[in-house]
Write a structure and sequence with these properties.
Formyltetrahydrofolate synthetase, domain 3; Domain 2, N(10)-formyltetrahydrofolate synthetase; 547 residues; alpha/beta; Rossmann fold
Length: 547
């Protein structure tokens, strides 16, 4: 293992000392303005890593992404990995850290998992500045006639805290503000996090920050944040956060880790700037989207690629023996035991995601079988035979145990898919289509449903969005990651279902509308025994227990 100092890492990418700022020995921020210097360069090949609907513990999508990048490096390819930033909520909650695992990790993992370069704190600060200015405006006369009962902008904190979902603020007398119902959401769910990930320049960032709909006035007209003249100050807080963070894997492969929009309610991808910059610095870019094809994959194609003018050259569809048994059995009981029948029953979920990638978005696909310790040879061979029957590229990935060496076959398959497989990538819908049609297409063609049912509230929301003039935007579906439906308990490949849209909001700064289905929370809670109780600092000052 050779861990490079950040100056050596930057030099390997051809960066000068003026192109980045060191954050300690092993982390750097690459100036986003480097995009302007490199804009005439040819772009490298873009590879998306996505997955089937996961088990609650995940299927190793990030680990696979990192290991695949290391395999490309071992094959002598110039590659950069692009990942999202971890949120403190999941780290101290259920899922733990988000830097990969085993021998397929990014470094320095503890710093990345915790405060990193402060980007997420900058998002929290910008978000809460807007919150404070809204209530201050109302307190000092409310010139914009903001309706206190219809303020959409909550406060945020980068922590799982169910106690803050619904609160009453402004108590304690006239000098402490105007009493009203309020609430918090986790920072990853903030529209500002989505805006930072979508912005393509500093001016674009400022414009998007000014276009946030914070609520309505008493006439029912939208109030934009720029009417409070606050977008400049928010941009100042986010100026440094706009630049991608440069780190490396345990094998020294360069990695950009930047932005972390919530995969359920936002587009769940790292920043457009990081992905674009990586494509100008490397011959191959390997990135991931949030959760499975139905959530992160579709949003990557229809939102990020559209706005960022990105063209995917291949996709990797991560699956695992245990996830197929999970879908086949309908629960987690017994998924550690050999069960070929359960794998076969769970296959329709994998085949559906495969069909969406190949037939809906028309991109090359390679299936990565992410191997876990309890997988038996019989189970691996059984799945391989099933994949041969449908004539799809595949490879077993063992990056947790073997690092990049465990993904060499997968890397070769991906490279061949780029060279030889048909790629006629297309978006699912045109921006000019009505929102109802866009959502219906996502339900039918991506989820495999029969259509959409809109609640009365959702219909009213749509009428208001049309009336306000917010048209021709992409759609971001807020949905569970565990099922193709909006019910997390319906595993496998359900049939005959409808997607139930309960409400719709416009994220005009981020540049899309969000259709909420099921019970999607923007402020998660902690489990009975949170991961935080396992984290400690030893006598030498080393942080331990982040998994």
């Amino acid at each position: 293992m050779h861990i490079k100092r950040v100056e050596e890492l930057a030099e390997s990418l051809g960066l000068s000392k003026d192109d980045y700022s060191p954050y300690g020995w092993y982390i750097g921020k690459v100036d986003w303005r480097l995009l302007n210097k490199l804009k005439n360069k040819d772009r490298g090949k873009l590879i998306l890593v996505t997955s089937i609907n996961p088990t609650p513990k995940g299927e190793g999508k990030t680990t696979t992404t990192i290991g695949l990048g290391d395999a490309f490096s071992r094959l002598g390819k110039r590659v950069i990995i692009c990942l999202r930033e971890p949120s403190l909520g999941p780290i101290f909650g259920v899922k733990g850290g988000a830097v990969g695992g085993g021998r397929a990790k990014v470094f320095p993992d503890v710093d990345i998992n915790l405060h990193f370069t402060g980007d997420i704190h900058a998002v929290s600060s910008a978000h809460n500045l807007l919150s404070a200015v809204i209530d201050n405006h109302i307190y000092h006369g409310n010139e914009l006639d903001i309706d206190p009962l219809q303020i959409y902008w909550k406060r945020c904190i980068d922590m799982n805290d169910r106690q803050l979902r619904s609160i009453v603020s402004g108590l304690g007398g006239k000098g402490n503000g105007i009493p009203r119902e309020d609430g918090f959401e986790i920072t990853a769910a903030s529209e500002i996090m989505a805006i930072l990930a979508m912005a393509k320049s500093l001016n674009d960032l400022k414009e998007r920050l000014g276009n946030i709909v914070i609520g309505v006035n008493r006439k029912g007209d939208p109030i934009l944040s720029k009417e409070l003249k606050i977008e400049g100050a928010m941009t100042a807080l986010l100026r440094n956060a706009l630049s991608p963070n440069l780190v490396q894997t345990l094998e020294g492969t360069p990695s950009f880790i930047h932005c972390g929009p919530f995969g359920n309610i936002a587009h769940g991808c790292n920043s457009i700037i990081a992905t674009t910059l990586a494509s100008l610095l490397a011959d191959y870019v390997i990135t991931e989207a949030g959760f499975g094809v139905d959530l992160g994959g579709e949003k990557f194609f229809d939102i990020k690629c559209r706005v960022g003018n990105l063209h995917p050259d291949s996709t990797v569809l991560v699956t695992s023996i245990r996830s197929l048994k999970y879908h086949g059995l309908g629960n987690q009981k017994g998924i550690e035991n050999e069960n070929l029948d359960a794998i076969e029953k769970g296959l329709p979920n994998l085949l559906h995601h495969l069909k969406v990638l190949k037939d809906v978005f028309n991109v090359p696909v390679v299936v990565a079988i992410n191997r876990f310790p309890n997988d038996t040879l019989n189970e691996i061979k059984f799945l391989e035979e099933k994949l041969k029957e449908v004539n799809v590229r595949f490879a077993v990935s063992n990056v947790y145990e073997a690092g990049g060496e465990g993904a060499l076959e997968l890397a070769r398959e991906v490279i061949e898919s780029i060279s030889y497989d048909t790629n006629s990538f297309r978006h699912l819908y045109s921006l000019e289509e009505p929102y109802e049609d866009k959502i219906d297409k996502i339900s039918r063609l991506v989820y495999g449903g029969e259509g959409v049912r809109f609640s009365d509230e959702a219909k009213a929301d749509l009428d208001r969005i049309y009336r306000w003039g917010f048209v021709n935007l992409p759609v971001c579906i807020a949905k569970t990651q565990y099922s193709l439906t909006d019910d997390p308990k319906k595993l496998g490949k359900p049939r005959g279902f409808y997607i139930n849209v309960q409400k719709i909001k416009v994220s005009s700064g981020a540049g899309f509308i969000v259709a909420y289905t099921g019970n999607i929370l923007t402020m998660p809670g902690l489990p009975k025994i949170p991961s935080a109780v396992k984290i400690d600092v030893d006598d030498d000052g080393e942080i331990i227990g982040i998994t």
